[in-house]
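Issue: copy button drops trailing tokens. Both records pasted manually instead:
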Amino acid sequence: MTNDHSSISPYLLRPLRSLDEVQRDLKKANAVTTQARTIHDRPVAALTARGERIVEDARTTKYTVPTREAGKAGFYYIGKAGALHAGRTVTESRPVAAALRARLLGEA
């Protein structure tokens, strides 16, 4: 038997990470999981942070349907690519203005 490491993966031969590196990576992973990951998740997270709730028994599966603030009738409809619409039904819903969208997402 020889000491030739050519058959062993270089990944297995690399040195172990330090405790600081592990803690840094865990901190990064926790920060990513608390942030919205996709353009669809950003408006959903922003609306739920404002107190809106997701309608679980909505008639549509194409859109995520959060409630709308108490003063207005209807719902928000969030498409898979992050499109934000508002209205009483999916058919009657219209895109929200860019200024309102920016205000909801905290980009104003």
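Record 2 (pasted manually too):
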Amino acid sequence: MSNLISPTIPQQFTPTEIEILAMLLEEAGNEFAEHSANDFTMPATDENKAIFAAAFELCGEPQDEDDENFDEDALSIKHIMEAEDDVFIYNDWLMTYLGSRCQNLFKRPDSAPALTKAELKIMSYLLVEAYEDRLDSAGAVCYDLTFLATPENKTLMAAVVNFCEDEGYEEGKKEAAIDIIDTSQNEKDEIDVPDYWIMHYFAQICEKRSS
């Protein structure tokens, strides 16, 4: 993995939040891999190039320059590190890579490097892309995630629902979630929340924490 030189931030995520982020990003990476247009660019800072190179190392296929089928125009670590204005990669590769970063943080919180501001900025954009992609089919497909009504989950889902309140989301689902959050005394009760609400919520959290 490439070394990331962007400074870390003092406020990171809870284990529950980082596990949810890992799941959302990994699932989005799998789904976006089926898309035909996956171009993603960021300013060619050292931090962004390091993240893109790490994503290539995880998801890309390095070429052998001695191979007769070698394509010098194909995306490579060299192309990434030599970028001057904007650096390019595929969004599904970044989703998969950053999902794995979150998974490592969840499994090894004491040893895995904290998320950097540059990673959080990229995550905010990727989560918005995933959120907007969901909206295209949200009326026809159920994207609900189910959480037990533990105090931690109720606090997190209350924040998600409150963030969604003024944005024209599905009222029936909001009311049902709020009812469980406000009245449930049984941690085995379940809170159903569409995953794209959570994507949108974490997109703005990542954006704020990347500043």
